[in-house]
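Subject: design request, 296 residues
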């Protein structure tokens, strides 16, 4: 904030407070000393207003409000660049609250962080902590039940794009993931998109009419097999999904598969490194437990 706007806010605020105080005292001074039967001279629907002074308790309450305003503006920021006598900020309050919370819960996290993810996933109290972390940080994409949605993986099954072992889950949480399914329209053309889409659907037992599966297989071998494998079972090192099962991240209809091949997919899993290693360990344990029902 520039000095001009800071000064503008200070002058405007103090002027308004001064005018309010003047109006309150001026009207109080000109009022009658006690109750009267005289009216203000106007009525509405048979209702008239008496010309009585403001009740004393109400007047005192207004004065106390003005005093409170002056004290507040002295102690806390509110007058342009003036930080307040207490030098309070939202950031400092937030950091203090986080520090208190970390001091309180650090022993709990340390206890479970020292245990392997597989063991933590068997402790109901630890799973409950991980579930709350998941609800806060992950449910907006994967859903409150972790079953995912269109473009967001289901975390309760045994199908993993990058691997479902504890360390891989933690790696995913720390660094996030960036999908890299390229667009193939410019390379193989519309006929190639149709044919390879039909062939990809056939790998999981789905039928498509009006496509050349032989040509689709050839196109697949030349363009897709390098990531998804010649047998279509995918590659977790690359995040290339298995095309032979019935799990489809972006839909299995002919139109949806064509859309994927035509324009590619670039889903993004954001990094959760801001949570810290302790919380990542708890969160990984919860995610791991979702696909290992016997561990719950």
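Subject: RE: design request

Done. Sequence follows.
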């Amino acid at each position: 904030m520039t000095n001009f706007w800071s000064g503008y806010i200070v002058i405007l605020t103090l002027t308004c407070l001064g005018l309010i105080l003047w109006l309150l005292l001026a009207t109080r001074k000109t009022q009658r000393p006690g109750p009267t039967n005289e009216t203000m001279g106007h009525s509405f629907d048979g209702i008239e207003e008496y010309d009585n002074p403001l009740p004393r308790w109400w007047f005192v309450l207004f004065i106390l409000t003005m005093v409170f305003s002056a004290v507040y503006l002295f102690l806390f920021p509110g007058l342009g660049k003036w930080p307040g006598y207490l030098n309070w900020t939202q950031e400092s309050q937030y950091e203090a609250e986080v520090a208190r919370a970390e001091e309180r819960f650090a022993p709990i996290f340390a206890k479970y962080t020292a245990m392997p993810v597989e063991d933590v996933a068997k402790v109901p109290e630890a799973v409950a902590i991980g579930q709350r972390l998941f609800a806060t940080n992950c449910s907006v994409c994967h859903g409150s039940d972790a079953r995912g949605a269109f473009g967001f993986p289901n975390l309760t099954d045994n199908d993993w794009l990058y691997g479902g072992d504890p360390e891989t889950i933690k790696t995913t949480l720390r660094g996030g993931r960036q999908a890299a399914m390229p667009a193939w329209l410019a390379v193989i053309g519309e006929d190639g998109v149709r044919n390879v889409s039909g062939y990809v659907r056939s790998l999981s037992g789905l039928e498509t009419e009006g496509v050349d599966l032989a040509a689709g297989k050839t196109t697949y071998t030349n363009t897709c097999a390098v990531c998804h494998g010649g047998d279509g079972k995918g590659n977790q090192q690359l995040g290339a999904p298995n095309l032979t099962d019935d799990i489809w991240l972006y839909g299995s209809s002919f139109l949806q598969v064509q859309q994927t091949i035509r324009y590619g997919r670039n889903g993004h899993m954001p990094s959760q490194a801001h949570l810290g290693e302790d919380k990542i360990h708890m969160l990984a344990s919860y995610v791991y437990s979702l696909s290992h029902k016997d561990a719950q």
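The chain has a mean pLDDT of 92.
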